[in-house]
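Aim 2, interim progress: modelling of the magnesium ion-bound target.
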Amino acid sequence: MRQVAVLGATGSIGASALDVIARHPDRLQASVLAAGSQVDALLALCRTYRPAHAVIADEALYATLRDGLREAGLSTQAHAGTQALDMLAASDACDTVIAAIVGAAGLSSTLAAARAGKRLLLANKESLVLAGELLMAAAREGNATIIPIDSEHNAIFQCLAGCSDTTSLSRITLTASGGPFLGRNRDELAQVTPAQAVVHPKWSMGPKISVDSATLMNKGLEVIEAHHLFGVPGQRIRVLVHPQSLVHSIVDFTDGSSLAQLGLPDMRTALAVGLGWPQRIESGVSSLDLLTEGGRLDFEAPDLEAFPCLALAFRALQAGGTAPAVLNAANEEAVSAFLQGRIGFLSIPDTVTATLDTVPMQLADSLDTLLAADARARTQARALIDNPTTTQRKYARA
Ligand code: NDP
Ligand code: MG
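Predicted structure of the complex, ligand included:
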């Protein structure tokens, strides 16, 4: 029986993961469920899945969680705080960890699971962008198996059939849906609202990644993610917009073969691959019928003028060191401000550009250096958000 910790259980990936787990009571058990602050949602999940442990990251909510579990007559043990989260991710309470916390907040528990040699189903792409080398080294040293859950990287993992020797791989093509604003120019993008940005045409996801998809920063983060996971330099990673979202990525090999993975856009497929590998297990997702889906697969180059975030991510990857951490932190701050209605859509790339321009790049030689760069970038990005005229004057188009 696989004992699975679902970190970010109350989120979109968490819900998909629990759906797959519930289909296999004979082989999968949700043993740890963790959330950030939605304690009522976590309690509801505990009543359904009866895990051995429940963790709420917000320590102020410990008593609510503990009392709620007691009132429900559950033997689930209550925990609170990030240290408890890290401890449980590394403990015998689980052999498999689904890293599905959103943002840099997921780094610490992801690293803990990697160091402890878990099977790590990695959805939290921000941890790879922020500390890719350290995370991959921790997984190697801890003998952890990383199975990427991001659909594109999961597709590549499947094309490589789990083989870690990637010397015969000549190019990776990450496909992008193009998001809700595909085809719009910068002037049209200036007025779009958070409500429009979070409605993704193909995938149902949490608000942060939905906005990242709308700016194409999501694809930029995925380029950096692919670089770390598969050891491929940025020059051999390309992005193609594929509006149908049925081809999840393509791998070119040195012998002229190209392999792609196809499927309906539903994260349960990637999660089932991660939970069952090397076996294939039922996920609840129907097989793809290309005729029913319209019989077309279109591909086009992304519009980097309207969506500069993708180019910014390539720039940060090329610069190396702490630059990807700065990119990620500035983006998290800008997306949060956009979702709160404090800045416009185009201020997201402007804030990231201005932060990358101002925060000096350093060698990423330790976790402390990376976390310091993350903190400095957040301070800088918040200052730019609070004083938008500076950013606008400098980065407004002529
Ligand atoms: P959601 O916003 O839906 O869920 C986020 C989860 O993280 C929630 O359970 C939330 O808890 C928890 N959380 C937030 N902050 C903290 C914190 N400080 N400590 C502990 N837990 C916290 O996000 P998604 O499920 O969409 O995405 C999760 C990750 O997976 C992201 O990194 C995303 O990029 C990646 N991903 C998602 C895909 C998708 O289809 N959704 C596809 C590919 C990758 P609470 O509810 O209590 O706030
Ligand atoms: Mg993806």
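The pocket of NDP (ligand 1) is lined by residues 8-14, 35-38, 57, 100-102, 105, 123-126, 150, 203, 205-206, 208-209, 267 (CB under 6 Å). The two ends are 61 Å apart (CA to CA).
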